[in-house]
């Protein structure tokens, strides 16, 4: 559900605009991996947590593996344990970068019939590689996603 439409109007924190693939909840604050705001999908919401999104185009979600050309960078990415390195990845994701012909960043426009890959790093909660597809968009901007976890990485910790 779009944050700008439902945040503060529903009893659920964040207005249902967030989702945690690890905790299976739309309530913000439980390791949210993805959010929807003003037509954009977002990742990396608090502290040093960060993530990368990339569009894979109009491809079937069941054809996506960790070896897919747009996903392999995300699958091989080594999560930093130093806070300064984590914050650098957060900044890098915000400005965006390209690897192997695929653009990665912390936010992308949500497009119907499009499959995306997501690497979400939520320190002390989860580190996930997910493929998802936008299957439907309602008149209020809400999205229906089909998703699959491609890989779970060890729960990341920041060194003190």
List keywords for this structure.
single chain, 160 residues, mainly beta, four-stranded antiparallel sheet, globular
Characterization of this structure:
There is one protein chain. It contains 3 helices and 10 strands, in the order H-E-E-E-E-H-H-E-E-E-E-E-E. The chain is mainly beta and 160 residues long. It has one domain (3-152). Strand 5 and strand 6 (102-104) form a beta hairpin.
What's a quick, concise take on this entry?
This protein is mainly beta and 160 residues long. Helices cover 14% and strands 36% of the residues. The protein has helices spanning 3-6, 72-76, 83-95; strands at 18-19, 34-37, 40-42, 50-57, 97-99, 102-104, 107-109, 114-122, 126-137, 143-152.
Widest sheet, order of strands: 1-2-3-7
User: What fraction strand?
Assistant: 35-45%
Tell me the major beta sheet. Answer: 4 strands, antiparallel
- Mean of all residue-level pLDDT scores: 94
Helix content: 10-25%
What is the count of helical runs?
Answer: 3
**How does the overall form come out from the CA principal axes?**
globular
Order of helices and strands: HEEEEHHEEEEEE
What's the end-to-end separation, in Å?
36 Å
Chart the SSEs and their pairings:
Blueprint lengths: L2 H4 L11 E2 L14 E4 L2 E3 L7 E8 L14 H5 L6 H13 L1 E3 L2 E3 L2 E3 L4 E9 L3 E12 L5 E10 L8
Antiparallel strand pairs: 1-2, 2-3, 3-7, 4-8, 5-6, 8-9, 9-10
């Amino acid at each position: 559900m779009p944050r700008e439409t439902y945040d503060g109007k529903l009893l659920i924190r964040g207005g249902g605009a967030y989702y945690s693939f690890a905790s299976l909840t739309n309530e913000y604050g439980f390791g949210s991996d993805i959010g929807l705001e003003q037509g954009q999908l977002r990742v990396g919401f608090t502290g040093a947590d960060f993530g990368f999104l990339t569009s894979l185009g109009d491809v079937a979600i069941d054809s996506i593996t960790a070896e897919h050309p747009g996903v392999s960078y995300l699958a091989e990415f080594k999560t930093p344990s130093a806070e300064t390195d984590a914050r650098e990845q957060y900044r890098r994701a915000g400005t965006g970068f390209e690897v192997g012909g695929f653009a990665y960043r912390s936010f992308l426009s949500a497009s119907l019939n499009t499959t995306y890959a997501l690497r979400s790093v939520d320190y002390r909660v989860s580190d996930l590689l997910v493929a998802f597809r936008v299957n439907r968009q309602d008149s209020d901007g809400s999205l229906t996603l089909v998703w699959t976890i491609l890989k779970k990485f060890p729960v990341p910790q920041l060194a003190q």
